[in-house]
Amino acid sequence: MKGRRRLGLFLATSMLLSACTVGPNYQPDRMKVPAAFKETEEEEHPATPEEIERTNKEMTEWWSLFKDPILTRLVEDAIKGNYDLQIAGQRILAERAIRDRSAAQWYPQMDANMGGGDVRYSINIDNWPLRPGNAANRPEASMLTYGVMASWELDMFGRIRRDVEAHEHQVEANIEGRRALLMGLLSELASDYMLLRVTQLQIKIATDNIRVAKDALDLTNKLYLEGVGNTLQIAQAQAEMDAQIAAREPLKTRVSQVTHAIAVLLGKMPGELEEELKIPRPLPIVPEFPATLPSIVIANRPDIRMAERQYAVATAQIGVAVANLYPHFVVPLTFNPNASAMYQAFQANAMSWQFLLMASMPLMHGGKMTAEVRAAQAAAEAARLTYRQTVLQGFKEVEDAMAAWHDDIEYAEQLHKAAEDSATASERARKLYGAGLVGFLEVLTTERTTLNAQNMEALAKLERLRDAVNLYTALGAGWKGVALTNTTLPVSLETQNFLARAFKQ
Q1: Is-contact 200 253, C-beta < 8 A?
Q2: Could you tell me if 242 and 214 are in contact, meaning their C-beta atoms sit under 8 angstroms apart?
Q3: Where are the beta strands (DSSP E) in 346-430?
Q4: How far apart are CA 90 and CA 99, in angstroms?
Q5: Which SS3 state, helix, strand or coil, does residue 204 take?
Q6: Taking Cα atoms as reference points, which of 355, 253, 376, 216 lies closest to residue 311?
Q7: What are the Cα distances from residue 325, in Å, to 104, 319, 359, 371?
Q8: Helical ranges in 266-367 per DSSP H
Q9: What start and end residues bound the annotated signal peptide (predicted)?
């Protein structure tokens, strides 16, 4: 009866002390940020819930705003098939398993054992009733043993709790890391697709200029036969056409390379999408600038969310280091009967057990443990500052993307006008040359100016499309609603170990 009271008092005290958790509790770092972005060209005002909801809805599947069904399908295939994304998913699953392993420390750790065999003791040791050299000594014996060994660490100062907390936050950080990878994947895929379509447009421009150069060569040959031109002009026209043909070849190479890159992003072999993507299509439509962009939307950025979770991890690890300064309490339990015959193994005389409460207190370690606390504190402060720097970098990227969006609109319009004017000038120069009013040098100059202006306009269109992609990426858009893909290897614990069916291992 007295033993039961003692055990009850011990368990009650343990439960009371286990509520004590040392170390700092995590507090999010509150950073003052502006209510709106400077480059929105709008008056600053607090964002309403309706504005935030509308913006988030527009950003969820931002790739659909380009009105290109092929791009939308490529994005869907990339989310399903990209290997980097699947690898990131496995890292999340692995970190969850590590968290569960840490949480297992809360429970008693128990193992069973069984054995038997023959043993022999030395007879040359003076150990009563054995005497060295005594013929009556019987050093051989048969032994059977079985039993259970258990150990239970009482988490009185929260070491285990803080350790589990750190791993839980690390799981969340890995989830945000996967989201950041997804966001980067979508950005790279969209940018490659835009480059593909613009390069195909440049190939069309180059082909048109080859046709114009051939017409100029034919005109030069005709004038020469009529006694107006000369061989120098023919050579110049031929060289111009050859140069135009040569300039088109690197563009074909770029189309192949970009097509290969897109296939790999989708988890496919290079070349699988070549036949489909090499068919030229119109450029995607540049979306409208978002209706409202309150600065709170930057909280969607996975890199900011991951940095905040890493700060939480570092804070919990301070608690682990502090808890190591306090006593550790362990309850060891052993039940280990020993006998020489099977029928004796279960008799009372064979029983052997112990049930104790063991406490250990760190006394002198040369400052190692306090140094670990200081290191954890410094790591947590570094994580907090990293979070702040990540927020600043996020705002910079958004402001840069907005500035590029606004500035490139006028840039693209001016290049479009320049391309039209150059085409008009080139056409007039060819007519005047045919009439013998200007030399062939003027024709060459205007054609090269036209080609350069058309290529510059195509690149400006590419920049406009990429400005939209960069803005959506900077705002952290596109990862919501994409579930974690579980590609766990087909290995079942139940088929590997039948004890896993009965015990939680």
Answers
A1: no
A2: no
A3: 353-355, 358-360
A4: 14
A5: helix
A6: 376
A7: 22, 10, 13, 11
A8: 274-277, 302-323
A9: 1-19
Q: Predicted confidence band at 259 (pLDDT cuts at 50, 70, 90)?
A: very high
Residues 251-277 as b/e (b if ≥16 CB within 10 A, e otherwise) read: beebbeebbbbbbbbbbbeeebbeeeb
Reported as type and span, the H/E element at residue 117 is: strand 109-120
Say which range, 5-9, 192-196, 300-304, 395-399, has the weakest mean pLDDT: 5-9
CATH (domain of 55) = 1.20.1600.10
Rounded CA gap, 252 and 386, in Å? 44
Q: What is the pLDDT of residues 316-371, one digit of tens each?
A: 999 999 999 999 898 888 888 887 777 777 777 777 878 888 888 888 888 898 99
DSSP state string for 168-185 = HHHHHHHHHHHHHHHHHH
Q: From 390, 342, 437, select the one nearest 114 (Cα to Cα).
A: 342
| Residue 178 domain boundaries | 17-80+166-324+365-504
* Whether residue 497 has pLDDT greater than 50: no
Region of 61 on the Ramachandran plot (φ > 0 left; ψ -120 to 50 alpha; else beta): beta
Residue 131 inside a domain? The answer is no
Overall number of domains in the chain: 1
